[in-house]
Every structure is written in C-alpha cells, then in structure tokens.
C-alpha cells in the first residue's frame, strides 16, 4: 500500500465508490454517509443532520453515543478488555447479577452477535431435549414460525421462510419444522414426542412488525408446558424496551423458558448478546460444550451493564410505551391513499404501504429523517427511546408530508 492510497477520502461520492469497489455488496444502504451521532440524531460527512428513525434495528435504544455507556467503555478499555474465559474477569459476575435482578431469569450465557445467541439457545434446547427430556440422540425437532428472522448463520437461514435468505446456501441442518406464525392449532399439530422447543419472535420485526393475534403467545406457552416443550423467545429486537415493556412477552403475561437478547444490550457500542434461562436448561452445558473467545469479555460486560442501567435510570421502557402510543395514534390519523395499514407496539411502528417503500424512505432522507424499508412495502419506525417529544413530532410531520404529497 502506498502513502497516497492512505490519503483521507472525504467526499460522499468517493466514500461510496470505495465501499462499492472493495466491499461485498450484501446490503443496499441509503446513500447517506454518517460520520457522527448523538441521541436520536446522526450527522453526515457534510455536516447535514438526520433524525434516526431506525436506531440500528433497535441496537441504539439508549440513543447514539450515550455518555454514561461511553464512559463505561472508556474506563473499562483502560483496564482490561479481553481475558478469554480461560480466566475469570471481574465484570462478568456483575453482569450476571444485573441481568438476573433486572429480568428474573436464573442464569445467563453471554455471546456477541444475536445470531450466535440464537445458535446457543438452539444448542441448549437440543442438549436439554436429549439429556433431560429423553429424546433419542439426533432425533430432536425444533418448531419455528413462518416469516421468522433469527439471524444469518447457515443453521438459522436453513429454517427461514425467505427464499433469498436460503438461496444458494444449502445444504442445511435438519431438525426444524415451520408452522404459520400466529396459528396456535398449527403449533399444536406440529408437536410430537420428539419436539424439543418452539422458537418464536413475540412480534416479528424483520417480517414487518407483525403482531400475532392477542393471546397467541400465552396459548403457545400453555401448549409448550403441557407437552414439555421449551418456549424460546427471540427478544433480540423486541426486547429491552422497544415495545413498551422490558420484554415483548410481558404483554401476554408469560415467562418463557428461554429469552434471547442482543442489540440494545450494549446500546450500540459493541456486539453483546445473551441467552437468559433457568439453571435446569443452561445447566446442560459443561466445560468445553460451548464457548466464544469474546463472549463475556470484561469490556462487553461493562458496556452491557451501563446500557442496562441507562434503560432503568432513564425510564426508557415507560417512555417507549408513552411515546409509542402517541406516535401510533398520530400516524393512524394520516389520510393517505399510499397507506394500507399502520400498526405497532411501543416505539416500534410499521407503516405498510400500497406501493414500494424505498422511494418514501428516500423522500424522507431528503427531509432529514432516516428510515429503512423492510420487505419492500413496509417502513419501520423505531427511533432511539431517548428521542425528545419535539423531535418525534418533527419526524412524524415529515412522514405525514411525504405520505400526503
Ligand atoms: C437482529 C436480529 C437477530 C440477529 O442478530 P445479529 O446481531 O444481527 O446476529 C436475531 N433475531 C432477531 C429477532 C433480530 O432482530
């Protein structure tokens, strides 16, 4: 590499050209090049500011660059960042305690990305199935829901119902069965003596913020209990305040066997995820059964502890419920032939359109609001939960203007 190739490239078009030339094209981002961010706002390389209505798919529920989380990151980074789990560190036990006290789950297993935590939950469930429930070796069946999104590993995309997520990536791991999301009798019919677990998002985010019929999760929990099947709830996007409860499953008054969290667990600073469960289920893991070099590292734990503290100290769960109900009502009053349906829970709202969503997202970008389409006709509204009421109002006005133009 020569000195000239290391020269700073600053213009938007140069940066985009570099990304297109040297990076794999596995995303189709809006052409806004963000340089810094604070709270609910992001700033591009030309200094233009945008209201962030995506919040990194709910990873920055606490707002961008939250000062308390930043301080925890810097302080911990000056002490020790990674020990590996070959040795103990002084932050992991405190994260375990904080997670237990906040969520009530007996135990946790820390990982990094969401997909890894899902894989971890599936491994725990299969091992529980064989060693506790008594399912014969390699006969375990795990039920998943149509339209699911649980990440991008080969095992996970293998049970996706999205053809693009699977196409070209086979062969896939066996042992998964799909049932229609929201259909309790389909779940009941799919359960066999070999069923280990039912893995489900309480509200399907990537599918377009799809809410199952009221009572579905509670009925699923009853069915699972009756058949000794583990209920695994993927709260990676719906959890940690996004829907106006700490966990979306609380809307149905249930307590699942396993909950998977990620994204906002670090407030966007660092990849941190965790599987929350009981002593009986996580107790199936013995030394050497599972692991991760970075999982449970002291930097991740310090950041996650600070991120959880911000959720509590700033009442972000209640804030999501209040601002979300307000925003939903305002959006539902918009009269526009472009709109098919507006639905949501907490500060997690879908605008389903009668037309492609991408041009609407681009029009919003020009007005200073960043949203991203999901499944071509849905716009997801998910600002950081710290957003101010006036900023929220301003963003909703831009949406109204674009939808009624
Ligand atoms: C984002 C997400 C994942 C995957 O998380 P990664 O950190 O991207 O691996 C899994 N499940 C749900 C519901 C998600 O929203």
Provide tags for this entry.
7-stranded mixed sheet; 36% helix; 405 residues; Aspartate Aminotransferase, domain 2; alpha/beta; 15 strands; 4-stranded mixed sheet; Aspartate Aminotransferase, domain 1; 17% strand; binds pyridoxal-5'-phosphate
Can you put this structure into words, describing what you see?
The protein is α/β, with parallel strands linked by helices and 405 residues long. The chain has two domains: 10-65 and 318-403, Aspartate Aminotransferase, domain 1, CATH 3.90.1150.10; 67-313, 3-Layer(aba) Sandwich (Aspartate Aminotransferase, domain 2), CATH 3.40.640. The protein has helices at residues 12-22, 55-58, 67-77, 92-103, 114-133, 154-158, 163-166, 184-190, 216-226, 279-282, 298-313, 316-332, 358-366, 389-404; strands at residues 34-38, 41-44, 49-52, 107-111, 141-145, 176-179, 195-200, 230-234, 258-261, 273-277, 339-344, 349-353, 369-370, 372-374, 378-381. Strands 4-10-9-8-7-5-6 form a seven-stranded mixed beta sheet, sandwiched between helices. A four-stranded mixed beta sheet has the order 1-2-3-13. The chain has a four-stranded antiparallel beta sheet with strand order 11-12-15-14, covered by helices on one side. Helix 4 (92-103) packs parallel to helix 11 (298-313). The chain is globular and about 60 Å long. The mean pLDDT is 96. Residues 57, 113-115, 118, 149-151, 201, 205, 234, 236-237, 262 line the site of pyridoxal-5'-phosphate (PLP).
